[in-house]
Specification:
The protein has 448 residues and is an alpha+beta fold. It is built from twelve helices and 21 strands.
Length: 448
């Protein structure tokens, strides 16, 4: 974990000293990693980025220095020897005097980008994941020579492959390709960078993680592409996904679902617009309209109601009497249901007991709120029983809720004998009962 103040905390498995606390004892709680100091009394160096491999860790300081610790059997901490490293130590060889701006870890390898666009790699290189033109492990940083003249701004390491993004939005790949994770249309490993020629357009972001063989890219229009090991299949070329961000794509297609970068939390910063809207609901200090239901007040804002609901848009844009009132009385629906409806307009969340969903469905139908209607139907489906299914079936027909009608019908068929003996079944009107019986007959429920 990296704090806002630039401190690093670690916890968990520590069999290879990957927690950086000077021991190989597992960490049960977050513990501060003692980074090198700036000097006498000046405190520890400020860390701006962190990355983890399978059993090694890397940290980047605000001055562009790289520190590494943990398992080092393949040279992944860049110390020139193969001994595990229990505490952070600067990676100096070939990086001295260079300012690193980006780091990433594969399973047992490490990649770094210099501010001038150069790329260096070290550690395991058995399938060419370092991109240096051979398959020899590197105990110290080695420059990716074939990218000379190309400005790289970001790298992302998978289990044994690497993605590199240029400042012009071009994408280079190298390393293991047994699942098509390089996206070049085949499953052949590459020890030198290969540019992806798929028509994604300019790429703006990339992602991969040391835990699997999947690649993600964000291209023109914010469209997210993926390729590699996807749910047991090998996708060898970039394929468009329905997602709009990298995290969702990795959560859906990665197995297991592991985040590629630390989640950034800013608990003390200003609330998002959604949080502000949620707070604004029923707040008398900012409200410009009060709705009274069953003698109780609900404080709202005309502008938000107009934006979110066609019923209120019509009310406040035409010559309705309510348009000139600061207090409106309402008696068509109960207080608990009407308040839940108004809160839904602010939050898109239904805060209401399941047993009240029918009344809310009635409101959604009256106000022509199709999305709210769908929410209500999902709630109602969760509360269907043998005793109430006939009643809910009739309600579904009344509100033209075809999805709910079909769900109730199938539920009733599965419990036909019990349902026909309920009070609600006996109360069905003649036309509804006739339609139900004909439909049940066609389904074969009366066959002997």
């Amino acid at each position: 974990m990296l704090t806002k103040e630039g401190e690093v905390y670690s916890w968990g498995h520590n069999g290879y000293c990957e927690l950086g606390n000077g021991t190989c004892n597992q960490g049960l709680t977050p513990t501060l990693v003692n980074m090198p100091t700036l000097g006498s009394g000046l405190g520890m160096k400020c860390i701006v980025d962190i990355a983890c491999g399978s059993h090694h860790s890397v940290a980047l300081t605000e001055d562009g220095e790289v520190y590494a610790w943990g398992q080092n059997n393949c040279g992944q901490v860049g110390s020139s020897i193969s001994t595990n490293q229990g505490a952070p130590r600067q990676v100096n060889s070939n990086l001295a005097g260079k300012k690193v701006v980006y780091i990433s870890c594969g399973q047992t390898s490490t990649m770094a980008v210099i501010e001038n666009g150069e790329v260096y790699g070290w550690g395991y290189n058995g399938v060419g994941q370092l991109g240096i033109g051979n398959y020899v492990n590197q105990m110290t940083p080695c420059r990716v020579g074939s990218l000379i003249g190309t400005v790289i701004v970001k790298v992302a390491c998978g289990y044994a492959h690497t993605l590199a993004l240029t400042d012009e939005g071009k994408l280079y790949v190298w390393g293991g390709n047994s699942y098509g994770q390089l996206g070049i249309g085949n499953k052949t490993n590459a020890c030198n960078p290969v540019m992806i020629t798929h028509e994604m357009g300019r790429v703006s972001d990339i992602a991969a993680l040391h835990y699997n063989h999947i690649s993600i890219a964000v291209a023109e229009g914010g469209r997210v592409y993926m390729w590699g090991h996807c749910r047991g299949q090998s996708i060898t070329t970039p394929t468009a996904t329905p997602f709009s961000n990298v995290h969702d794509a990795l959560a859906c297609y990665g197995s297991p679902s592991v985040m590629h970068k630390p989640l950034i939390l800013h608990p003390n910063e200003e609330s998002s617009i959604l949080e502000c809207l949620k707070t604004a609901f029923d707040d008398p200090s900012t409200s410009d309209l009060t709705i009274q239901v069953e003698g109780q007040c609900i404080h709202v804002h005309k502008a938000i109601l107009k934006i979110r609901c066609g019923y209120f848009r019509t009310m406040f844009q035409h010559n309705w009497a309510e348009n000139n009132q600061s207090v409106i009385e309402h008696d068509q629906f109960s207080y608990i249901v009407y308040k839940a409806f108004l809160k839904y307009l602010y939050t898109d969340v239904i805060d209401l007991p399941v047993e009240k969903a029918l009344e809310l469905l009635d409101l959604a139908n009256a106000y022509c709120e199709s999305n709210l209607k769908k929410h209500c139907i999902r709630m109602i489906k969760q509360g269907i029983t043998v005793s109430n299914v006939a009643y809910l079936y009739s309600i579904a027909i009344e509100y033209s809720a075809e999805e709910l009608e079909e769900f109730c019908f199938k539920f009733a068929l599965n419990h036909m004998t019990a349902v026909t003996q309920t009070e609600n079944f006996a109360k069905l009107d003649e036309n509804t009962l006739k339609t139900f019986i004909i439909k049940a007959g066609k389904a074969g429920v009366f066959r002997t």
